[in-house]
């Protein structure tokens, strides 16, 4: 029963249901984690480019992708806000709100911070027989802060510390006492910036994110779940087309640093023998016994990979058009979709809008279809100078 709490959260944000085609346990073993809201793109700009945010030029949302790039930001201080209605096709009260920013201490150092708040709407809980139990309004949030240092003129490194709180359900249900799950995690990031004075050149990023403790919703130590530790690498190139136009192309690759949950069936779908059942029970016990470091090493045997390809055209550094394509393996959820968006930059703030295009139909329709993201970034340094 203790698995059901995080499975509710997982289903709610669509990571088990957003497959391009139906998947079964016989055909693929999806790598699952708790607090999957940490995998939702928290940024309208990168969201319009299929979540390819690792190596993009720095802005207020750097802490969510690669905090090390904040030391290369042109402005001394920014604050960003993003609102994302989630699963609009099947729910009306699920949304993600984020706030993030940075401040440069000097030319070589910067601090970053951010908060994510995920509201999962109202849920009706039932027991195994379908009897109504209680209504609940699950919610999750994370708080983070980071420090970043320029190592050379083109290279920087950063570290981010994160507190995670997942309050899906509380109290006694079906004989189990549930509580809010908490965890502590961190990111390690490296950023390479070789842009010239005109803004043309290559940027690259390497980020190991959500490296931290397991999370549990009961007092049962055996029920602790893995958080979505991830290894990501990205590269981008910016071309100056003329005096007013630029184009940035970027690609990101990600791998979940989480071991696969043992598969219950044989590859042909047949029932397990007694000996196979005993072996399966042992593999499940081993899965829950993995420590944090051991889980990272075990993760390289899974195939939970994703790729993001994005592009951004800018005119006069004021008008922006963006698009992207996202692809992932079946073990990671089998999502494939197109994204698009636009941006407008004013003297002291930027506006961004992102849209996830519909894909699939009927039972195969992607629940993330028609997802919108709205973002605004305030240039606090410019605002202060104007005042």
Q: How would you explain this protein's 3D organization?
A:
This protein is mostly beta strands and 387 residues long. The protein has one domain: Outer membrane protein transport protein (OMPP1/FadL/TodX) (Porin). Helices cover 13% and strands 43% of the residues. The chain has 6 helices and 18 strands. The protein has helices at residues 3-12, 44-47, 62-65, 274-289, 292-299, 380-386; strands at 77-85, 95-104, 109-119, 123-126, 132-136, 139-150, 155-167, 171-173, 176-178, 181-195, 201-212, 230-240, 245-256, 305-315, 319-328, 336-345, 349-356, 372-379. The strands form 3 sheets. Strands 1-2-3-6-7-10-11-12-13-14-15-16-17-18 form a 14-stranded antiparallel β-barrel. Strands 4-5 form a two-stranded antiparallel sheet. A hairpin with a 5-residue loop joins strand 10 and strand 11 (201-212). The longest helix is centred in the last third of the chain and has 16 residues, at 274-289. The protein is globular and about 70 Å long. It starts with a helix and ends with a helix.
What is this structure's SSE topology?
Blueprint: H1 3-12, H2 44-47, H3 62-65, E1 77-85, E2 95-104, E3 109-119, E4 123-126, E5 132-136, E6 139-150, E7 155-167, E8 171-173, E9 176-178, E10 181-195, E11 201-212, E12 230-240, E13 245-256, H4 274-289, H5 292-299, E14 305-315, E15 319-328, E16 336-345, E17 349-356, E18 372-379, H6 380-386
Antiparallel strand pairs: 1-2, 1-18, 2-3, 3-6, 4-5, 6-7, 7-10, 8-9, 10-11, 11-12, 12-13, 13-14, 14-15, 15-16, 16-17, 17-18
Protein name: Type IX secretion system outer membrane channel protein PorV
Domain Type IX secretion system protein PorV: 25-260
Organism: Rhizosphaericola mali
């Amino acid at each position: 029963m203790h698995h059901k709490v995080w499975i509710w959260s997982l289903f709610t944000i669509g990571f088990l249901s957003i497959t391009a085609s139906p998947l079964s346990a016989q055909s693929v073993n999806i790598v699952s984690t708790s607090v999957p809201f940490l995998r939702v793109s928290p940024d309208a700009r990168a969201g319009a480019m299929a979540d390819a945010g690792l190596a993009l030029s720095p802005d207020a949302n750097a802490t969510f992708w690669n905090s090390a790039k904040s030391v290369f930001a042109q402005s001394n201080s920014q604050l960003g806000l993003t609102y994302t209605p989630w699963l609009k096709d099947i729910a009306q009260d699920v949304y993600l709100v984020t706030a993030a920013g940075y401040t440069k201490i000097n030319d070589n150092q910067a601090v970053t911070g951010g908060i994510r708040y995920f509201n999962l709407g109202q849920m009706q809980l039932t027991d195994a027989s379908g009897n109504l139990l209680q209504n609940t309004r699950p919610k999750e949030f994370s708080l983070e802060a980071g420090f970043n240092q320029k190592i050379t003129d083109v290279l920087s490194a950063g570290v981010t510390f994160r507190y995670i709180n997942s309050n899906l359900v509380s109290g006694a249900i079906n004989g189990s006492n549930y509580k809010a799950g908490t965890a502590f995690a961190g990111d390690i990031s490296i950023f390479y910036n070789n842009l010239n004075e005109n803004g043309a050149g290559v940027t690259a990023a390497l980020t190991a994110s959500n490296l931290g403790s397991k999370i549990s919703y009961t007092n049962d130590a055996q029920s602790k779940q893995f958080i979505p530790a991830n290894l990501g690498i990205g590269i981008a190139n910016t071309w100056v087309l003329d005096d007013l136009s630029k184009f940035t192309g970027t690609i990101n690759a990600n791998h979940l640093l989480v071991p696969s949950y043992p598969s219950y069936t044989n590859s042909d779908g047949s029932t397990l023998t007694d000996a196979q059942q005993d072996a399966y029970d042992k593999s499940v016990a081993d899965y829950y016994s993995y420590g944090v470091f051991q889980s990272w090493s075990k993760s390289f045997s899974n195939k939970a990979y994703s790729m993001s390809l994005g592009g951004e055209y800018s005119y006069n550094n004021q008008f922006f058009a963006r698009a992207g394509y996202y692809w992932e393996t079946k073990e990671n959820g089998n999502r494939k979709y197109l994204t698009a968006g636009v941006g407008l930059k004013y003297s002291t703030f930027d506006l961004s809008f992102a849209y996830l295009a519909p894909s699939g139909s009927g039972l195969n329709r992607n629940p993330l279809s028609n997802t919108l993201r709205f973002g605004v970034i305030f240039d606090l340094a410019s605002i202060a100078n104007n005042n």
